[in-house]
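Entry 14. Ran structure prediction on the chain below.
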Amino acid sequence: MMPTARGRRKVCVVVASRASYARIKSVLTAAQGHPDLQLQLVVSASALLHRFGKVVDVIQRDGFPVEATVYNIVEGENPTTMAKSTGLAISELATIFENMRPDVVLTVADRFETLGTAVATSYMNIPLAHTQGGEVTGSIDESVRHAVTKLAHVHFPATKLSSERLTRMGEDPATVFLTGCPSIDAIANLDLSLPDDLFVRYGGVGAQLDPREPYIVVMQHPVTTEYGQGLAQVNETLAAVAELKMPTVWLWPNVDAGSDDVAKGLRMFRERYNPTHIQFFRNFSVEDYARVIDNCACLVGNSSSAIREGSFLGVPAVNVGTRQQGRERGENVVDVAYSSEEILKAIRAQIAHGRHPRNHLYGDGRAGERIADILAGFRFTIQKRLAY
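Output, structure tokens:
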């Protein structure tokens, strides 16, 4: 399938969370300005919800028109509702794709909404493009990522090793393009100085932090394959941060199964101890988040941003638990178990060490333009076949 005679190729992108927006924003920019592409943007899932930062507002402020929205999150944040949310995504997106008639759909990474997008496009004979396949991690994301790979028609891995894994999984080498991770694009040429009023502008809950003082950033999400343990796990991190007594920017967890347990731990801690050194936030823009982590003394938790953006920037990071288990990383990351003693010791060591060398493992800042060019000219075929 080549660009049609009627004009530009229609590329539909589904953004379902704050993380997926950070991972795809540069592709949206490149596609929007590409002479051979017409961008169709769909926003769904937690990206529409206030308690997860309502990323759709950020998307629209950034100048991307939203053609459709999909409210598919079933309340409860447990394994059952996660499965039902995925099913709703399949059903609702099928209707949207039928109306939009995209030439190709681009989906991001490994979240459950990504699987819903992939299933809908596959059964509708719409070519599927996938970013960040071939990576290895913990949680259910590991299984979802590889499942989407087998449904996708073209692949945009972030690292050389990920690219090699895709071909070893039986994907045709002609469909695998090593582009780097689009999240690096947003920070590669960004002025990373931190405005004095940034934390005031975003509000937040709890102590008002002074960005001129040294601070740490914490982002800890639930691990779906360890459902029921989220409260105990986040309590270990909270105990370490309480003992550290350093100004702390803490971002709210994502919508995955177990989110309520993690959020409960944060609320109980806040109400019980009324900490004077922690400020909780729902969300930052992609660029402001980069500024926040680039200027912090240490990045703590289990977000892949510590490994992707963190390695590119050289930010000291402490990765807690199993969520990122097996993911390629630079020397900026130290891994610890769910233990307040280990977490505290690692944070102090990372702060004492200071900045690490920058690492281009996940890209050089040009992934978005590469992906847009490939989407514009790639010859898609719907029928897939193992290519061993």
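The chain has a mean pLDDT of 94. Will compare against last week's run tomorrow.
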